[in-house]
Amino acid sequence: MTFDAEMVYIAYQQAKARYSNRPYRIPKDFDKVWSKISEKGLYNIRFIAVAFSTRWQHIDLDKYMDTGFKLFGNGFTYVKFYDRRILTMYIDEDKQIKRKTGNIKTEMTNSFDFIDTWMKENKEYRDDVTFFSQYCRMKDGGIRAPIKHYINNDIDKHTLAWLISKRYLVLQDNERALIPLVIQNYWTLSELAIKCVGEDK
Predict the structure, then answer these.
(1) Where are the domains positioned within the chain?
(2) Does the pLDDT value for residue 61 go beyond 90?
């Protein structure tokens, strides 16, 4: 992807808005915008656009800008675009995310293996109902299987959130009360789960 100065400016301002928890409207007249920025600021905007289009292609521009504000707060300005500490922090956080994602994938793989084994031991497959729909309809000890298996640590929280996100498991109010941590963190858990599973299931 090729980035230009306008794209960098917008990414920076959007990150600033996220940091300040306020809305941001993309300007219509960039000539007016450029006229209000110092020569050094303009140089940094244009130069970093080249970097993100070439040697920094593997770096997410939005996350880089978020990292700058995380590091410097409102002191993150155009002149600090190339501060080495931003890239160092970005790389460290990216490694942590990749390690976390790897761990989640392993946990979900183990959970799916458990589900597969449990289903083979407890149910004959039906062609007219999908595998995970069948699983989520079944009960174990009077409780629907996915919930019972999560409580027993047979499946992990991301797998349970994935089943809910795919609507294989539609929760009743009494079932929500059994899994409060999953409900409270549902959006984060389901987003990570979907990212790990992809289109494989």
Answers:
(1) 5-82, 97-197
(2) yes
